[in-house]
Write a structure and sequence with these properties.
The complex is a heterodimer. Chain A is an alpha+beta fold. Chain A has two domains: 14-37 and 164-384, Alpha-Beta Complex (Naphthalene 1,2-dioxygenase Alpha Subunit, Chain A, domain 1), CATH 3.90.380.10; 40-142, 3-layer Sandwich (Rieske Iron-sulfur Protein), CATH 2.102.10. Chain A is 19% helix and 29% strand. Chain A contains eight helices and 20 strands. Chain A has helices at 23-34, 157-161, 165-171, 192-198, 208-212, 308-321, 330-342, 374-384; strands spanning 14-16, 40-44, 53-59, 62-68, 74-78, 93-95, 98-100, 107-109, 114-116, 138-142, 145-149, 178-188, 220-225, 230-235, 263-268, 272-277, 280-290, 293-303, 348-350, 364-366. Chain A has an eight-stranded antiparallel β-sheet with strand order 12-18-17-16-15-14-13-20, with helices on both faces. In chain A, 48% of the residues are buried. Chain B is 27% helix and 39% strand. Chain B has a single domain, classed as Nuclear Transport Factor 2, Chain: A, CATH 3.10.450.50. Chain B has helices at residues 6-24, 28-33, 48-52, 65-78; strands spanning 42-47, 60-62, 86-101, 104-117, 124-137, 143-152, 156-157. Chain B has a six-stranded mixed β-sheet. Chain B has four helices and seven strands, in the order ααβαβαβββββ. Chain B is α+β, with helices and mostly antiparallel strands. Classes of the chains: A alpha+beta, B alpha+beta. Chain A binds chain B through residues 92-94, 180-189, 206, 208-209, 212, 245-248, 251, 295, 300, 315-316, 318-320, 323-325, 327, 330-331, 333-334, 337-338, 341, and chain B through 46-47, 49-50, 53, 55-64, 66-67, 69-70, 73-74, 77-84, 119, 155-162. Chain A: One of its GO terms (molecular function) is dioxygenase activity. Chain A: Residues 39-148 form the Rieske domain. Chain A: InterPro entries: ARHD_Rieske_2Fe_2S, Rieske_2Fe-2S, Rieske_2Fe-2S_sf, Ring_hydroxy_dOase_asu_C_dom, Rng_hydr_dOase-A.
Chain lengths: 391, 165
């Protein structure tokens, strides 16, 4: 039983709206989920392709430094000096083989070793630089996608990903050899769960564009992976046929391979959403800021084997299609905000589409079923220790 | 000492104001009318953070006249009724300009942009940055944007975007 009181509805298709808005629940989520036994994607290795490249990122407020050393090895560090804890690197990205803390001039290499500190004869007797490397969280990677966990108890990354691995590998170009195109970064006025609950596939009714572009929905499969309730989609790509209102139809053209499974989404608990749709490869690194705010870094990629024309096509499509101002996703962003406002009302959010029996959980769904989110909610409930009401 | 071309400066400022005015009144056809009819007319809105790191991806990437026209269709037709509307106020200031050739001028301006969502009524800064413009001096004497890059200091937007910046 959780120390914080929230009675969960007896039906599996209902989620109490209070879970999205209460400060005490958010504080507990930090402990049980973000500092708990989950893996959090923080970068893809292709964001730092060259020796000395680095990226910084805040994961649930925790500052991280992800750096590639001279030999090409990528490591994750806490972005804080091992001396007094000063934020070490302030740039969001760049290239350095050494990181110097300006406070007392402690100097670290990209392996995290302390290689210099002035006046150390004045330090404690026996001071040894080798005792003060940059601290590191546990990290691991999957086809270049770098995950961090803030708990020593977390299962292996392979176990965590489970049956989502095939979909995720294919989404990462099949081999993870990606090339970074750039970022769209945004804060949404939305609880992190409202964001993840509504990103990915959902009712196409929202998207007027589909109708106006003569864009028919593709057939697809949605399934749950692992007890965490990760959600995977594999869908036949629907390509626009016939007239469209767009004068430049290349925005919605598909120039890649394999339209039979041309659309993939992997949504990993707790906050990560990734998608490959048309020729867009998009990893969304999301982190809660507070109970009312989530920050999402949409990172877009080409594949290293792309020719120049394909890179340009992906760049043009990525910039305009799926982000916080994309043709078929701007409305999603609006829904994140509006759902969060609506969640400040009593009662439960209710899932309907695809629910066959509200007393049972399923693991296979149709593409546009709402019910695909329910295993994740059951996992959330259990991690948070909320008891389900008696049937 | 170079002589200040007050007539040209007035015309450049008038173009800046016309763009700000069209955007703040949500007049997308008016926004489009500030751009050259040439095929390569373009509007790209991008975080300076991307540009400075050699990353070309933008928030909006309308790199030809057709895409500018499609941007009007997004706002006026496709997205109608799906978002929380917001007012904008652009504050624009010309910083520098130079003639590239007889018919082309490059200009750099600062902008700050306030937004006021209709539902909350609370005004906040949406973005700040620079416009990097290439301006065509057309035969009839009119100035039109051949290309505009809205280069945002704001690398993390405080909300989703509907209208160009």
């Amino acid at each position: 039983m959780s120390e914080i009181g929230l009675t969960w509805p007896k039906n599996f298709n209902e989620v109490p709206k209070a879970a999205f808005t209460r400060k005490d629940i958010y504080a507990e989520e930090m402990k049980r989920i973000f500092f708990g036994q989950e893996w959090h994607p923080v970068a893809h290795e292709s964001e730092l392709p060259n020796p000395g490249d680095f990226k910084t990122f805040r994961l649930a407020g925790v500052p991280l430094l992800i750096a590639r050393d001279r030999e090409g090895v990528v490591r994750v560090f806490y972005n804080a000096c091992s001396h007094r804890g000063n934020q070490l690197e302030t740039a969001v990205m760049g290239n350095k083989t050494e990181f110097e803390c300006p406070y007392h001039r402690w100097l670290f290499d990209a392996k995290g070793d302390l290689v210099g500190c002035p006046n150390h004869r004045d330090f404690l007797p026996g001071f040894d630089k080798s005792d003060y490397p940059l601290a590191q969280p546990r990290f691991d990677s999957f086809y270049g996608l770098i995950f961090v966990t803030l708990s020593a108890e977390t299962e292996t990354l392979t176990e965590f990903l489970g049956a989502s691995q095939n979909t995720l590998r294919e989404l990462l170009g099949g081999d993870g050899r990606l090339k970074l195109l750039g970022y769209q970064k945004v804060r949404y006025d939305s609880n992190w769960k409202s964001y993840t609950d509504n990103d990915g596939y959902h009712a196409p009714l929202l998207h007027q564009a589909f109708k106006m572009l003569n864009w028919q929905g593709g057939k697809g499969r949605q399934f749950t992976a692992t007890k965490h309730g990760h959600i995977c989609f594999e869908s036949a790509l629907s390509v626009v046929s016939g007239p469209t209102v767009l004068k430049d139809a290349s925005l919605i053209a598909f120039k890649g391979q394999d339209p039979a499974v041309g659309s993939r989404i992997v949504s990993l608990f707790p906050t990560f959403v990734s998608t490959k749709h048309l020729d867009v490869i998009n990893l969304r690194f999301a982190t809660p800021v507070d109970e009312e705010t989530v920050e999402v870094h949409y990172a877009y990629f080409a594949h290293q084997d792309d020719d120049e024309d394909m890179v340009l096509h992906r760049l043009r499509q990525s910039s305009n299609l799926l982000g916080p101002c994309g043709l078929i996703s701007m409305e999603d962003a609006s829904i994140f905000h509006r759902i969060h406002i609506g969640n400040h009302t009593p009662g439960n959010a209710i899932f309907q589409k695809g629910v066959h029996d509200q007393s049972k959980l399923e693991s296979e769904f149709l593409q546009n079923d709402e019910s695909g989110n329910l295993p994740r909610w059951e996992y959330y409930r259990s991690v948070m220790g909320f008891e389900r009401a008696e049937a | 000492m170079m002589q200040t071309d007050t007539t040209l400066e007035s015309a450049l400022d008038a173009l800046l104001m016309a763009d700000a005015s069209a955007l703040d009144s949500k007049d997308m056809m008016g926004w489009l009318a500030n751009y050259s009819e040439e095929d390569e007319a373009s509007y790209i809105c991008r975080a300076a953070e991307n540009s400075e790191n050699g990353l070309a991806l933008g928030f909006m990437y309308d790199d030809c006249r057709s895409r500018l026209e499609d941007r009007v269709t997004f706002v006026n037709d496709i997205w109608v009724g799906t978002f929380q509307d917001y007012r904008t106020r652009h504050f624009v200031q010309r910083v520098a300009y130079q003639r590239a050739d007889a018919s082309t001028i490059s200009m750099r301006s600062n902008f700050s942009l306030f937004m006021t969502p209709t539902d909350s009524g609370i005004t906040q800064v949406l973005a700040a940055g620079q416009y990097l413009d290439t301006i065509r001096l057309e035969k009839a004497g009119a100035l039109k944007l051949l290309s505009r890059r809205a280069e945002l200091d704001t690398s993390v937007l405080p909300r989703y975007l509907v209208y160009p910046i």
